[in-house]
Amino acid sequence: MAVILKHNGSLQIRYNLGGTKEPFRIDLNHRNLANGQPHSVNISRHGKELHLQLDHYPAVPYSLPPSTDIKFNSLKTLFLGRVVEIGNIDQEVQKYNTPGFVGCLSRVQFNDIAPLKAALRPSASSLVSVQGEFVESNCGASPLTISPMPAATDPWHFGSASAEFPYNEESTIADGVNRNSAIIGGIIAVVIFTILCTLVFLIRYMFRHKGTYHTNEAKGADSAENADAAIMNNDPNFTETIDESKKEWFI
Q1: Sheet arrangement for strand 2-5
Q2: What is the model's pTM?
Q3: Which of 4, 97, 208, 235 sees the fewest Cβ atoms within 10 Å?
Q4: What domain range is 94 assigned to?
Q5: Per residue in 116-156, pLDDT tens?
């Protein structure tokens, strides 16, 4: 079994107990696990039923192929960080084996084996081998202050088949997205309504004043015989006749 954290932050679980040519693969690419935040992965298998839980999301069941062996009784070595064994290694594991995992590992446990705790003990067992720098750290996380989950709601407690998950982030995020979408939709509707009202007002204004213009015609032009008479009737001080104004003088 191999747990691979890829460069893009996705996680891949490879399971091969024998009986199949290719390992059974589970790809978790819907979240970025290389974002600098702590993440937890819990894998449990009973026969050919595999359950995988990522962070506080509900556990997801998987079924191994019918031809898969279910006995895991030939455990030889447990590698953390990278595989340093020489020999036939899975090509996908070899692809991410250089430089290997870079980061912080915490609370690693395989059945009843806790390799990190064993390596940090003053009298470390000779079965534990450390290569490179190995420093004790809390991985930048605060100490756990939350009380343990009751057995009735713990999905990993055997015998709690009807366990309910107290928190589901997926539904919470979906509700938040729906509320935000409703607010944004309301704002857009108000903006569109305002623009339509403005356009209606402008169109009515343009049609109301269409063809309206101002002229400098003399008052009484409609009742006068001609334009010259209208000018003379409108301005009593106008003594020059139109005929005289049209005379041309030559010198």
Answers
A1: 2-5, 11-15, 24-28
A2: 0.47
A3: 208
A4: 2-120
A5: 787 777 776 667 777 777 777 777 655 544 455 566 655 55
